[in-house]
């Protein structure tokens, strides 16, 4: 990993505001190449929201050519409808990555927080501040984008582990 830079796409999915971020790591230098949110208005039908997520991630991959991707893992929601909609958004994001040939690994929110802040119980603002510090950003990224960048950073840390300890690929 010391020679060629590695680019990692991080994705924090939701139907209405998915966070995305791409980091590049070369040697000990880590920087954000791109980050933001994929927005879908509340009145837009789910099918068009999923298409927008798929197309936006596909365009991001084509523009920045990441080597791999990390995505927030599924969580257990009390509301079945919420869980199903989140699963659909994750499916659109995963499909965009798979179609472009990226290896995709998933991380629980606690694992990401622990990798970034040192504790799985960290608050969102603590994660955002540490992402700013690690990537040398002048101002905090939007909340969903900060989460996506944190997922990308978490994935980078996983890549340095022996294969049997690395995150599960999906």
Overall tally of domains:
1
Q: What percent of residues are in strands?
A: 15-25%
Give me the CATH architecture, please: 2-Layer Sandwich
Instruction: Give the % helix.
Output: 40-55%
Structural class: alpha/beta
CATH homologous superfamily grouping = Ribonuclease H-like superfamily/Ribonuclease H
The strands making up the biggest β-sheet line up spatially as 3-2-1-4-5
Radius of gyration: 15 Å
Q: Shape from CA axes? A: globular
Mean pLDDT: 91
How would you characterize the largest beta sheet?
5 strands, mixed
CATH class: Alpha Beta
Describe, in short, the structure shown.
It contains five helices and five strands. The protein has 170 residues and is of the alpha/beta class. The longest helix has 20 residues, at 80-99.
How would the blueprint of this fold be written?
Elements: E1 6-12, E2 17-26, E3 29-39, H1 46-64, E4 68-72, H2 80-99, E5 103-107, H3 109-117, H4 124-135, H5 143-159
Parallel strand pairs: 1-4, 4-5
Antiparallel strand pairs: 1-2, 2-3
Helix pairs in contact: 1-2, 3-5, 4-5
Explain how this protein is built:
This protein has helices spanning 46-64, 80-99, 109-117, 124-135, 143-159, and strands at 6-12, 17-26, 29-39, 68-72, 103-107. The chain is 45% helix and 22% strand. The protein contains five helices and five strands, in the order E-E-E-H-E-H-E-H-H-H. It has one domain: Ribonuclease H-like superfamily/Ribonuclease H (Nucleotidyltransferase, domain 5). Strand 1 (6-12) and strand 2 form a beta hairpin. A five-stranded mixed beta sheet has the order 3-2-1-4-5. The protein is an alpha/beta fold and 170 residues long. The model has no long low-confidence stretch (mean pLDDT 91).
